[in-house]
Amino acid sequence: MVLGPDFSPRRLSLGDSRQGRSPLTGRGHHSSPPAGAVEAVGVASEGANLLASGLSAEVVETILQKLYALKWNLFTSWCGHRQQDPVNCPVGSVLEFLQSRLSAGLSHSTLKVYVAAIAAYHAPLGGLSVEKVPLVTRFLRGALRLRPPVRPRVPSWDL
């Protein structure tokens, strides 16, 4: 699906790059992401965790940009096959896409990344971001119950 020139996804950033500072750290020089790059809602907390692990702001921004762009591209392709506008499709379409990913074996945490990526571009639904829509949060809770995280029964170390 090729989106026309009137396509205008919500472009959310982690901060104001005009100040010449990184939106994640608030210091140092920050260059704006390339045209078309989009940061998702809720990326700041994930970015803060990555920064706390010792990664530079530039590395964190690259990781997050790539992560959400891939998920969004998969969603737009799915919508294109169904003749739907990925920016303005109804919540039912978002849930059908998420169900297809769950049925393909994806984990709850991966589905949450998809929701964050979709929320970065999708128009609000009933005044709410996609990730705040009650049906989406209920779906994610259900996915967690259906496919809980697997914890290893044996320690990873050996005596």
What this model shows, in words?
- The structure is a single chain.
- With 159 residues, the chain is an all-alpha fold.
- The protein has a single domain (17-146), classed as Tyrosine recombinase, N-terminal domain (DNA polymerase, domain 1, Orthogonal Bundle), CATH 1.10.150.
- Helix content is 47%, strand content 0%.
- Helix 1 packs antiparallel against helix 2 and helix 4 (108-121) runs antiparallel to helix 5.
List the helices and strands and how they pair.
Elements: H1 43-52, H2 57-81, H3 91-103, H4 108-121, H5 134-146
Helix pairs in contact: 1-2, 2-4, 3-4, 3-5, 4-5
Protein name: Core-binding (CB) domain-containing protein
Region (Disordered): 1-36
GO molecular function: DNA binding
Q: Main β-sheet, in a few words?
A: none
Rg over alpha carbons: 17 Å
Low-confidence stretches: 1-42
Task: Estimate nothing, just give the exact number of structural domains.
Answer: 1
Shape: globular
Per CATH, the class reads Mainly Alpha
Give the total of beta strands: 0
Strand content: under 5%
Highlighted features:
159 residues; mainly alpha; DNA-binding; DNA polymerase, domain 1; 5 helices; Integrase_recombinase_N
Please provide a brief summary of the model.
This protein is an all-alpha fold and 159 residues long. It has a single domain (17-146), classed as Orthogonal Bundle (DNA polymerase, domain 1), CATH 1.10.150.130. The protein has helices at residues 43-52, 57-81, 91-103, 108-121, 134-146.
